[in-house]
Design brief:
Length: 144
């Protein structure tokens, strides 16, 4: 007769009389220590979940894509920067400009300056150095 794997495992775990052997005191102490360590780890994880929940709730001013630019030290700044970077990358792609021809390192120390500088660089790469004057000189409604 063929035995099922779980039956074989059960026979190996059970004692001769078909019951689980009584664990030693050392085994019980080790199990208690492991349980205490897992409980401490769970408490740490619960605190981290709470911290992350609070951070997500801080996003509410942006739920309709509105709100002030976050402070530089805010954890939300990376979210904001990612959105700005995505938007500029999309502009560069739409203009058909190779990404490597755009100066991405503006370092003007302000958001407006950095973003403006990179956009200006993308437009210059797409239309040449005289693009601001050429656009200003073109009559309204004139074909491109």
């Amino acid at each position: 007769m063929k035995s099922e794997p779980h039956e074989i495992k059960q026979r190996l775990l059970l004692g001769a009389n078909g019951t689980l052997p009584r664990p030693s005191a050392e085994t019980c102490r080790e199990a208690a220590a492991r349980i205490a360590a897992l409980e401490a780890e769970n408490a740490k994880l619960a605190a981290e979940v709470e911290r992350l929940r609070d951070a997500v709730l801080d996003l509410t001013p942006w739920e309709h894509s509105q709100g002030p630019v976050p402070d530089y030290e805010s954890p939300l700044m990376s979210v904001f920067d990612s959105g700005v970077t995505y938007t500029i990358e999309l502009l560069v792609k739409t203009l058909g400009v190779p990404s490597e021809s755009v100066s991405w390192d503006a370092a003007t120390e302000t958001h407006d300056g950095d973003v403006g500088s990179v956009i200006y660089s993308a437009l210059t790469s797409a239309f040449g150095e005289d693009w601001p004057h050429a656009l200003a000189a073109r009559p309204e409604g004139a074909p491109e």
